[in-house]
Structure formats: structure tokens, C-alpha cells
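Entry 14. Structure prediction run on the chain below.
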Amino acid sequence: MTQVFRQDAGAVTFAVKVVPRASKNQVVGIEGDALKIRLTAPPVEGKANDALVAFLADTLGVQRAQVDIIVGGTSRRKVVRVRGVTERDIAQRLGQRTKGG
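Output returned:
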């Protein structure tokens, strides 16, 4: 199994595949080496990026300022860094929100 989450210096980094214009915001699961997330926001004018940061912050119980998109600002495939949580925290909290899990 591919490792999705990587712990480093007080932050966790992971790849995300965003599916915009979905019927609801939800974690779908793992696709390859990325976490697949559906968002209701369209992929225009940064709306999907804002929605992704807000969704992850809410889901992980952190502030928006702790969530950064570090790669892929204009792509559906992004790399996200979340500060102040552990790899285990993220896996647990996202696992509870994963479709079918």
C-alpha cells in the first residue's frame, strides 16, 4: 500500500485529487498515492482551493491558517500541508469522513 501521509517537522503533507462541482463535499478515499476529495465549488477563481482549505480545516479540527496548498494551485492534483496535527490524527479524522468507512 502506498503511503499517502508524510509527517515532517510538526506538519503533515499529502497529495489530494480534487473533484470539483460535486453534489456534496466529501472524502471519497485513496486513489493511487492521493486522497480523493469531492467539493461542491467550481474550479474557477480559486473557489475550489478555498473550499478545499475550509473543508480540510473543518474535517481535521484545525484553523484555516494551518492548512496550506503548497503545490498545484491551478491543478486538480495538489499537495497540502497541515500544521499542528500528526499523521495518525489526520488518518483517523479523515477515515471517519471517508465514504463507506
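The radius of gyration is 12 Å.
Filed with the rest of this week's runs.
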